[in-house]
Specification:
Layout (H helix, E strand, L loop, with lengths): L1 H23 L2 E2 L5 H6 L12 H5 L1 H14 L3 E3 L7 H5 L7 H19 L5 E6 L14 H17 L4 E7 L2 H12 L5 E5 L13 H8 L6 E8 L4 H10 L4 E6 L1 E3 L5 E3 L5 H13 L2 E6 L5 H10 L5
Parallel strand pairs: 1-10, 2-3, 3-4, 4-5, 5-6, 6-7, 7-10
Antiparallel strand pairs: 8-9
Helix pairs in contact: 4-6, 4-12, 7-8, 8-9, 9-10, 11-12
The chain binds zinc ion (ZN).
């Protein structure tokens, strides 16, 4: 019992620290994991995508987390984007959802220990069950409730400091996943993926999304998986809808007409940091990188937003 009490108390201290920091500081998230695994030669073919690295390349995955921490990230995100039971079942390993999620959290926690920055936080990622860019594939509410509930509980029992409900492309799934995350008592950030016009990829408005999500009392609302060059106006709208901490982790690429992500090298770290300064001026205090960003992007952000410690 002693160790559980100690653990709980240490978790409570970390959560309080997070709650304080997000009120008063600009915090950096990490950059991409999936595209960085690919860049380092790890197979991320579908349907397992980045989850394969937990089984086949845990050391590469750990090194990516560590590189982001050494670059200056305050929050790193677990590689659990595709470890829901439903998604692993597509590869015949749905029974490994709990153990793979636990391993992914342990790998991120190991990176924090090795970085010597033990005040860094581990965010447990909860992603849409369907394709992030194809909201029409959203599953039934029963499946969403079951899967996001299960994932939330595994992440929290594995010791994450917060839950990051991310890349949500429909209001219904954002609401269900956020409810599941918040019901655990763990601090929860929600991140929405929007089109260039500022609506969710489903076509639903950001205003409608925030109207439903804000009463759930998340700790922050972010935008992700949107092009770094296009996200500012959506962020400005988001600022109008909430006083909560807001943030951005954008892509360095764009969606083509078939809603597939096209990588581009047009947004190098220096330009990305210039975009981030404008997001900060518009109110964003949680800033990181999504698909295509690398540790260099986070290191450049750290120069622009120096650590307060
Ligand atoms: Zn992305």
């Amino acid at each position: 019992m002693t160790s559980i009490t100690t653990n709980n108390s240490s978790h409570n201290i970390r959560r309080r620290s997070l709650e304080q920091k997000i009120k008063y500081e600009t915090l950096l998230l990490d950059g991409a994991t999936g595209t960085e695994l690919e860049r380092r030669g790890v197979d991320i073919s579908l349907p397992l995508w980045s989850a394969r690295a937990i089984l086949d390349a845990p050391e590469v995955l750990m090194q990516i987390h560590l590189d982001y921490l050494l670059a200056g990230a305050d929050i790193i995100t677990t590689n659990t984007f595709r470890t829901h039971r439903h998604n692993l079942a597509l590869s015949g390993i749905g029974g490994q959802a709990k153990s793979m999620t636990q391993q992914a959290v342990a790998i991120a926690q190991k990176a924090v220990r090795l970085s010597n920055n033990t005040s860094a936080f581990v965010a447990g990622s909860i992603a849409p069950l369907g394709d992030s860019y194809k909201p029409s594939n959203t599953l039934s509410e029963n499946i969403l409730e079951e899967e996001h509930g299960l994932m939330s509980n595994i992440l929290v029992s594995s010791g994450v400091d917060l839950i990051l409900v991310e890349t949500m492309n429909t209001i219904v799934e954002a609401e269900i996943a956020t409810r599941a995350a918040i019901s655990t008592g763990c601090p929860t950030f929600i991140s929405l993926v929007c089109d260039r016009d500022g609506s969710l990829l489903s076509g639903e408005s950001l205003s409608a999304a925030t109207t439903l999500l804000l009463p759930l009392e998340p700790h922050a609302i972010l935008l992700n998986c949107t092009s770094a060059t296009d996200v500012l106006s959506t962020l400005q709208k988001l600022r109008q809808y909430t006083c909560l901490p807001i943030g951005v982790y954008a892509n360095v690429g764009y969606l083509n007409e078939d809603k597939n992500w096209i990588q581009t090298k047009a947004v190098e770290p220096d330009y990305y940091a210039k975009c981030a300064l404008r997001w900060n001026e518009a109110g964003a205090t949680l800033i990181g990188g999504c698909c295509g960003t690398r540790p260099d992007h986070i290191a450049t952000l750290r120069n622009v937003f120096p650590c307060k410690n």
